[in-house]
């Protein structure tokens, strides 16, 4: 069991004896959270507000990310893949809930909004497991910031994207600018941030904001689940090492990146998963990798 206390929210993760199905108790239920076969799914559950995050939803979102980090640190870990999505077909996340936030013009409210989600998304980027943004509908403002914090991004074909903060006379506030520049480059990021223009899912894929686009509603859940299960079959320590190396390469000098690569490569060479891969090759069978152990 993992218990996470964050501000007004208490999260209790209870594992079944076989570790396959997990429930998360949240009060209130602005966020749904499940773990099935080591795949965790966080669903923003505010479809009536286009899944915009009010204060309670922000606290719960942050608490879930913290709880996932703790579950990963267990031995054996109960989570190997983390999916973030929204409820329904209309919206992924529409940023902060302007109806609630408009009643708080004081600077302290802005600082609170900034800190909760900025810190949560920073923790999300640091998780040593693959994270997937399953963009089921429109991602506006902070919703786009959330998806940039995920390693992999898959979108329904009807989804639209906009870094709309400029239209509310704001910058990004959840770390989105730095991540967007690293994802797409300074020139492309400037164009999206300064104009706040609307992108289709196909356009988002063409510029590299999303990796995959699913054409039909019927294929959506299958496509997301299949991708997550494929990743689950791969060796966890290697996935963690590749994440560490890839993100480090964005800011480390080439020589330091190469040193890190050597360190990780040598460490993995004698790891049971690599030995299993070599044995499976010799025996002409599919390798069966162990659970992630760090």
Protein traits:
2 domains, 294 residues, 2-enoyl-CoA Hydratase, Chain A, domain 1, four-stranded mixed β-sheet, single chain, alpha/beta, globular, Lyase 2-enoyl-coa Hydratase, Chain  A, domain 2, nine-stranded mixed β-sheet
Helix content estimate: 40-55%
Distance from N terminus to C terminus (CA atoms, Å) equals 19 Å
- Share of residues in strands: 15-25%
* Overall radius of gyration: 19 Å
The CATH fourth-level homologous superfamily of the largest domain: 2-enoyl-CoA Hydratase, Chain A, domain 1
CATH architecture heading of the largest domain: Alpha-Beta Complex
Based on Cα principal axes, name the global outline: globular
The total strand number stands at: 13
Q: How many strands, which pairing sense, and closed or not: the largest β-sheet?
A: 9 strands, mixed
Q: Taking strands numbered 1, 2, ... along the chain, how are they ordered across the largest sheet?
A: 1-2-3-4-5-6-8-10-13
Q: Write down the CATH topology of the largest domain.
A: 2-enoyl-CoA Hydratase, Chain A, domain 1
Q: SSE order, as H and E?
A: EEEEEHEEHHEEHEEHHEHEHHHH
Number of helices: 11
Arithmetic mean of pLDDT:
89
Q: What is the number of domains?
A: 2
Would you identify the regions where 5 or more consecutive residues have pLDDT less than 50?
1-10
């Amino acid at each position: 069991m993992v218990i996470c206390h964050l501000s007004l929210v208490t999260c209790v993760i209870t594992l079944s004896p076989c570790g396959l199905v997990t429930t998360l108790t949240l009060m209130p239920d602005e966020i749904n959270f499940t773990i099935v076969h080591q795949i965790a799914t966080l669903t923003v559950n505010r479809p009536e507000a286009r899944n915009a995050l009010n204060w309670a939803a922000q606290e719960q979102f942050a608490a879930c990310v913290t709880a996932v980090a703790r579950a990963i640190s267990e031995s054996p870990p109960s989570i190997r893949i983390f999916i973030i999505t929204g409820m329904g077909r209309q919206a992924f996340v529409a940023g902060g809930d302007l109806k609630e936030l408009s009643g708080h013009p004081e600077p302290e409210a802005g600082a609170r909004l900034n800190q909760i989600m900025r810190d949560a998304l920073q923790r999300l980027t640091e998780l040593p497991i693959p994270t997937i943004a399953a963009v089921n509908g429109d991602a506006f403002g902070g919703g786009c910031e959330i998806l940039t914090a995920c390693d992999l991004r898959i979108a329904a074909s009807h989804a639209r994207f906009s870094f709309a903060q400029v239209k509310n006379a704001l910058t990004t506030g959840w770390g989105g600018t730095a991540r967007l520049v690293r994802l797409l480059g300074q020139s492309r990021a400037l164009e999206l941030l300064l104009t706040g223009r609307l992108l289709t899912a196909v356009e988002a894929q063409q510029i590299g904001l999303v990796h995959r686009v699913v054409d039909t509603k019927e294929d959506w859940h299958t496509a997301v689940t299949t991708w997550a299960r494929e990743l689950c079959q791969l060796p966890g320590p290697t996935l963690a090492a590749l994440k560490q190396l890839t993100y480090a390469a964005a800011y480390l000098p080439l020589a330091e990146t190469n040193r890190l690569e050597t360190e990780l490569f040598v460490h993995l060479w004698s790891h049971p998963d690599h030995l299993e891969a070599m044995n499976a090759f010799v025996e002409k069978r599919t390798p069966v990798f162990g659970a992630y152990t760090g």
